[in-house]
From TrEMBL, chain A:
Protein name: Simple sugar transport system permease protein
Keywords per UniProt: Cell membrane, Membrane, Sugar transport, Transmembrane, Transmembrane helix, Transport
Keyword Protein biosynthesis attributed: no
Entries under Pfam families matching the protein: BPD_transp_2 (PF02653)
Lineage: Bacteria, Bacillati, Bacillota, Clostridia, Lachnospirales
Listed GO MF terms: transmembrane transporter activity
Principal location listed in the UniProt entry: membrane
Automatic annotation (TrEMBL), chain B:
Entry GO MF terms: transmembrane transporter activity
Name listed for the protein in its UniProt record: Simple sugar transport system permease protein
Keywords, comma-separated and alphabetical: Cell membrane, Membrane, Sugar transport, Transmembrane, Transmembrane helix, Transport
Keyword Cell membrane: yes
Subcellular location: Cell membrane
UniProt xrefs under Pfam families: BPD_transp_2
Organism ancestry: Bacteria, Bacillati, Bacillota, Clostridia, Lachnospirales
Cross-referenced InterPro entries: ABC_transp_permease (IPR001851)
UniProt membrane topology term: Multi-pass membrane protein
Amino acid sequence: MKKKEILCDFLLWILFAILLGLTISFSFLPLLSVNPFQALTVMFSETFSSTYNMGNILIKTAPLILTGLAFTFTYKANLYNIGAQGQFYSGCICASAVSLALGGKLPGPIVILLAGMAAILGGAVVGFIIGFLKAKFNANEFLISMMSTYVIQYVMQLLLRTSLQESKHEYLKTDYLDKSTWLPKIIPGTSVSLGIVISLLVAVLVWYVLYKTSLGFRIRATGLNQDAARMSGISPQHQYMLAFAISGAIAGLAGLVEINGMQHMLLTGFDTQIGSYGIGIAILANAHPLAVVPASLLFGFLQVGGTALGHSTDAPASVIDLLQGFVMLFVLMSFYFRRKAELNKLKKKRIVTEEA
Amino acid sequence: MNNITSLLARAFFMSTPLILGALGEVIAERTGMMVTAVEGIFLIGAWGGFIGAYISGNLYLGFLLAMVCGLMVALLYALTTVYMNQHQIVMGTAISILVTGFCTFFYRVIFGIQTTPLKVEVLSTIQIPILSQIPFVGKILFSQNIITYLAYLLIPIILFVMNHTALGLTLRSCGENPEAVDTAGIDILKIRFAAVAVAGCLGGIAGAYYSLCNVGMYTSEIISGRGWIAFGICFLGNWNPVGALIFGTVFGVSEAIGVYVKSLGMSTMPSELFSALPYVLVIVLTVCRKDLRAPNKLGQNYVKEN
């Protein structure tokens, strides 16, 4: 099959999986005496009713692109960074700490730049530690990355109760960041910040690094066949550490986008599922860095649509979680059925040629 | 002294679900299947257990429903990985996300919006006659609930089946040399499927332990990584039921310490760090243990040639 045909085929299967997920999850809505068709209409009409709401999709999409890319990057090295949530929180902590400490004292753009660097570093350090433990001690990387998420969550709670807590010391959150450290808004009439641009740039950058540089080649070679890579002089251990550090850095940057671009403060228990959505997005995108962007847009739309659904009907926003779960499941299943269909086609072809 | 007794009793109490989950994981992983959906299985167990107990008013029916729910999720996981050959880690994560949405949505469907959390009476302890009278040890080991006793009873049973029966040999061979099992005419896929199903039943009960024995209610954060800790205990225990017991107890102690420090309520204490102790322990111990011997084909799907 030609490349274009394969892509079309792939998209058809994905589309089918999404529609099936939508149908099944929405068919549960009558249990709450909500008409599923009405719910669907509300989801679309509310979301696209104003520029502001459409902007919200982009706001939700921006960090999702980054966590999706974070999972994709290690996936290419045949590693599983299922703890992007922790690296994201680490980035959040660093970004907000720097912005709080320097906001108002230095010019805004410089503070944002420093906060960005801190967020990247914060995520990268966590990622690097996981990669290091994998490389040096052959530790189980997905177990460790999952555990690190919970450790960082508790560290964040501790910081929010002590050194980072707001000046009144009442709630578990920080003060509002200084306005000069907020990411500038780019579309008038919405709250869309520079974050989406950053995310898109990173997506292109990741694609470039993975497919056009020797670093990316080494990482992909390690992922495809670790032994073959070692024979040709690539040290898999180095690639583990590099891939995890870069993956962590990307997830950390999502912290900046979320803190300086949207929340403008750090609080406990926000975006608790951004890491797992990242995995879902990477699955949907078949782990291609550029395909992560439309997949994130879909998830972003579902988030906004889910909120709208919760506001204007009796349907809870959790129906969206259900929907996303089903979509992920069906996309993974579709890989199996697509492969089976392909094999059947090949078999038929062989029979035909043998007969002739 | 009294403090230490109650702390240790609490530790054994908290280690039960971890041991149960880890035992299920041991059975499945010996056949080469990592049950990475364990977090989802725990969660649906907690959810199903609470719903069953609240509606029927009987805790044991709750545990039964939890077992069935855990089994269902495990079957879905086994179907997609064993028979549809999808990647185990990716599939497990996807199923866990689906379960999270499922539980939240259907909790709402069943109970509507509640202003105060619904509660059930937690499972009572059973004092074993005579043994519970022994000073110190009696309070710690022999004043637990029935699930804890069953979990301990399960360990020698699994150990015996694993090491001294033909079934155990087949199970272990599936993880070490699947080709040989296949050549011997045994349906390896069926065996793996069944092993995951057993892990699902045990995981479901373990999850229900949190909602029915620990807090007596259900929240969506009730599991928060405990499934993954059970998964880690299976690794640390070297895929051995006795190892699962030892490390399950270690984590029970660390969790009890976290709860104890938090209950002191001293704002100067970094109690969060003590709560994080079990998670830190998983990381540190996986790095420290060098003598682990994983099943040869752990995490690799077996594709039959045709």
